[in-house]
Amino acid sequence: MTHPFVTALLNWYALNGRDLPWRHTQDAYSIWLSEVILQQTRVSQGMDYWHRFVGRWPTVDALAGATEDEVLREWQGLGYYSRARNLLTAARQVVAMGAFPDTVDALRRLKGVGPYTAAAVASFAFGEDVAAVDGNVLRVLSRVFDIELPIDTTQGKRLVSTLAEDLLPTGRSADYNAALMDFGAMVCTPSPQCEGCPMSELCEAQAAQTVAHRPQKSMKKKPITRALTYIYMVSDDGDIALHRRSSGDIWHGLWEPVCIAQKTSTEEVREILGLGSHGVGNLTLLACDVKHQLTHRTLLATFYLLNDVGREALPEGYQWVDSTQRDAYGVPRLVEKLYALVDEVFNPDTGLHSNRTGHVRNKKNI
Predict the structure, then answer these.
(1) Which runs of consecutive H residues, i.e. helices, occur in the chain?
(2) Distance CA 120, CA 256 (A)
(3) Tell me: the pLDDT tens digits for 222-248?
(4) Fewer CB atoms near the end CB (10 Å): N or C, the chain?
(5) What own/partner pairs with CB < 8 Å and gap ≥ 24 does 144-148 have?
(6) What would the pLDDT profile of 32-89 be if each residue is shown by its tens digit?
């Protein structure tokens, strides 16, 4: 027998479910692509990326033929760039298999596909009766059934996942999963809209007046603060110095200008880059304490512009890149902020605008 909550949820979804393009198809590639893009990303932001990816690479075979640089460039701005690299690897796995895997177990063998994504694709594309449990589902069920266990622990996740499976109506996994996701995104949000909620009479947390404490979470560590210094180095013939970030650190595979892994003064920049022996160039401080928040760390960046420097001053591990081709190289969002500042004050043909030389911005202006 279908649980009253599930009946009410499906009735709500029939009238209020979001109209999303990947819900109008059972194409596994389109659905998988949407799920990967929407990890840690709002639908409003991810929608444009999904359209761009489908427009450029309409099939998994087309995506498998892309280069990593091409995929990272299209992904730029979404963050969590390991998702983009995993996306390309998984596409190539699918092509090697000859077809998209059609079960949860088979989908889990794809690079970057965890329990939720595998269940979502298996449910939406292939109709497998499996519950897809994401953050929205964890939040909704922990409130409706007043679950005390922290949902960010193994025990808490296992309890909610088992409950989600037990509630699943046979043959309607796609509607059930979509309904839970939408209800969590639209009504049972982090700041819930309890007044007028169609589940009010069924919500155990509301009856117990514990909604404000659900879902329960364990104590989190405070993010680590990390300082970086970026130098936008321009040669005397207009090229810029870039390099690709290596594995083992944030933003693996993305490109960036000259980077020093600490907060660095103007004098220290000159010393580290050996400017005294290679031609001084024009070094200008553009901004300091530019804040960029990642999941587990806070970055504070200092931005410099160094133009009119000799080509021999190129640091080891970097390469000169035609400045007109700069946007072909995928960069982190923090570097995009640097680019925006440089574009405001620097003309590659004439150098710094005289009325902006030496101008410094603080984090409030970025």
Answers:
(1) 4-16, 28-37, 43-56, 60-64, 68-75, 82-97, 104-107, 115-126, 135-144, 154-167, 173-186, 204-208, 266-273, 275-278, 333-345
(2) 35
(3) 778 999 999 999 998 889 999 999 877
(4) N
(5) 144/5, 144/188, 144/199, 144/202, 144/203, 144/204, 144/205, 145/204, 145/205, 146/204, 146/205, 146/207, 146/208, 146/210, 146/214, 147/214, 147/215, 147/216, 148/216
(6) 999 999 988 889 999 999 999 999 999 999 999 999 999 999 998 888 888 999 999 9
